[in-house]
Write a structure and sequence with these properties.
This protein is an all-alpha fold and about 280 residues long. The protein has one domain. It has nine helices and two strands. Strands 1-2 form a two-stranded antiparallel sheet. A hairpin with a 3-residue loop joins strand 1 and strand 2. Helix 4 crosses helix 8.
């Protein structure tokens, strides 16, 4: 039984790694080689897929109702594409939301199961999914620097996630939020911050930034990494309330698209807001 269990875990890890590699390669290729409109369309499809999964976490089972929600989500993205000046307000609202969720999630001691539809999660889903779409698309539309900024944000989030996992597994003792995610530790969060700081320093060095600009990039990077942990914990809360392990079985070994972008949903608007302040 022990050998079979080890083989099963090894196979699952291999499947998870292969999925992450091809998906990451696809996303990087789109970021670097697609024009802004093509990039926006690609991420529109990803967000609509995530919105479909979100409906499941909100208790919406009927296909017609889910399609109606996707239409509303698509309309929101279209409006943000036509009037990008609204984006900064959306980023501010999203940053405030995630700040409040950070305080709230740290106080969770029990997760009560829910059944049926949760109507309040529908407008929340619009904020949680539209804001990162607007952030990524808005960054990508910046002349010359756009793709590099998006790629930096993605690498920042991926690095923070990886460092939180490996540092927490090696040195972590005190749990961060044991009710929501037993594997996360406080030391892991420090690892995420350290990885984000390293990414920020490397980016500042490659761009030959001055001291003030470097400090700002470091601040944005570390704050984005911190809030990315909140995004992960929030989706864990929704899944535990609904009594499901994964948001869907779309990606082999990963359990849904929301599982892959939960950190990014929180980090992207904060990163974009900080960059907007720096450019104005």
């Amino acid at each position: 039984m022990g050998g079979a269990s080890v083989l099963q875990v090894s196979g699952s890890l291999q499947q998870r790694t292969l999925t992450a590699l091809w998906l990451g390669s696809l996303v990087i290729g789109v970021v670097l080689w697609f024009p802004p409109a093509g990039f926006a369309l690609f991420f529109t499809l990803l967000v609509l897929t995530a919105a479909w999964e979100w409906c499941g976490l909100a208790g919406i089972e009927r296909g017609v109702s889910r399609l109606a929600y996707l239409v509303v989500m698509a309309a929101g993205m279209w409006l943000l594409w036509l009037w990008p000046q609204w984006q900064v307000w959306l980023f501010g609202l999203s940053a405030l939301w995630w700040l409040l969720q950070t305080v709230r999630l740290m106080r969770v001691r029990r997760v009560d199961p829910v059944v049926g539809v949760q109507p309040l999660l529908l407008p929340v889903g619009l904020l949680v999914l539209l804001a990162p779409w607007a952030a990524l698309v808005g960054l990508h539309r910046i002349p010359e620097m756009g793709p590099a900024l998006v790629l930096f944000l993605l690498i920042l989030v991926w690095t923070a996630d990886s460092m939180a996992y490996f540092v927490g597994r090696r040195w972590g003792r005190a749990k961060l939020a044991p009710v929501l995610s037993p594997g996360k530790t406080r030391v892991g969060v420090y690892g995420a911050m350290g990885g984000a700081a390293l990414c920020g320093l490397l980016f500042a060095w490659t761009q030959s930034l001055g001291l003030a600009e470097t400090l700002w990039v470091l601040s944005i990077s570390v704050l984005s990494a911190l809030v990315s942990v909140t995004g992960d914990l929030y989706e864990s809360l929704l899944k535990r309330r609904r009594g499901v392990k994964d948001s869907s079985r779309l990606l082999p070994g990963h359990g849904g698209l929301l599982d892959r972008i939960d950190s990014l949903t929180a980090a992207a608007p904060v990163f974009a807001l900080g960059l907007t302040w720096a450019l104005t």
